[in-house]
Inverse folding.
């Protein structure tokens, strides 16, 4: 690594974050950029914009398009894709577990696995059994992790991370931010964000 | 041309349509795809979604991001960029003139020139003098074109074109549509749209 770094902001319910999560580690390694996974909640940010659910549910034509676009883009990336039911999934628990996971070397892998379970296998990510299964597949004992995730010590961390995202100007996911304050929104901007991060 | 074709839907007020208009002819020629320029009005489509102006004005963080993103992307494309004042520009007159222009071989060039005047040179596109100047630069006598644009025969054409866009599921601009009914939204999807158009 050259010292270049990028923050990857995502909500587990976010469709385009699925693609970004699947691509970001290889793309960043290629560009010699270190990536920090930063889960947050879109809910409070959408609420501040007057939305009580995903804009893809609120705006019908846009939603219909998004599902078709996702299907095409996943096919190009050879990523499995199934529309989650319900959509959006409730991502609070998964995000809390992810914060605990990201204190460990297997945290990134956990996050990518949650996305794959949700959008590739049609699993519900608000079901603790789904998250426990992912942890066990990573050979991590799940109970202590799930307990730590739901502890009073952990809950404020997610709120703080969401507030930090909002302060940075994040309004959707995925978003990439650089150390010098640039913000790149969308899976479509991953390459630009990596190029920016490696500028002198 | 192989027979492959693509429709390019745009509103002259649309920021990302500026970049698409600047790129589309060379990219399409490269892919051996013929492109049909199809101006329409976003206003009625936004209104149906409950918006009375550009979503970039309604959603502050998104708007701030868009201007920065546009600045970066235009720099990458080596396209001049100035933020229009006011934004969005009133695009009705320019769209009516464009429909007349597009009956002629110089129609595409006219459209690209309108975008450049607006986003590259900071000119007001609701000013007939701007449009007349563009026509004269193309060595076209401007008065008959501007008259035809404002005629009772021409006005319904723009309404019909906007209705057609809405029927196709267009919810923003630029949008690319293929003969087999695929829809691609955004300057970021131009390459995918061209690849789709040349399938089979």
């Amino acid at each position: 690594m050259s010292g270049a770094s990028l923050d990857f902001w995502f909500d587990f319910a976010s469709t385009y974050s699925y693609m970004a999560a699947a691509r970001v580690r290889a793309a960043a390694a290629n560009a010699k950029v270190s990536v920090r996974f930063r889960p947050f909640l879109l809910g409070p940010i959408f609420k501040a914009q007057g939305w009580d659910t995903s804009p893809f549910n609120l705006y019908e034509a846009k939603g219909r398009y998004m599902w078709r676009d996702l299907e095409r883009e996943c096919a190009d990336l050879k990523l499995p894709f199934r529309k989650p039911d319900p959509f959006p999934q409730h991502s609070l628990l998964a995000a809390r577990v992810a914060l605990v996971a990201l204190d460990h070397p297997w945290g990134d892998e956990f996050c990518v696995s949650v996305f794959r379970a949700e959008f590739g296998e049609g699993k519900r990510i608000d079901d603790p059994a789904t998250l426990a299964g992912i942890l066990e597949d990573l050979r991590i004992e799940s109970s202590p992790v799930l307990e730590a995730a739901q502890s009073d010590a952990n809950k404020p961390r997610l709120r703080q991370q969401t507030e930090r995202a909002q302060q940075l100007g994040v309004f959707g996911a995925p978003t990439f931010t650089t150390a010098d304050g640039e913000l790149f929104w969308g899976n479509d901007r991953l390459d630009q964000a990596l190029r920016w991060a490696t500028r002198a």
Summary: The radius of gyration of chain B is 16 Å.
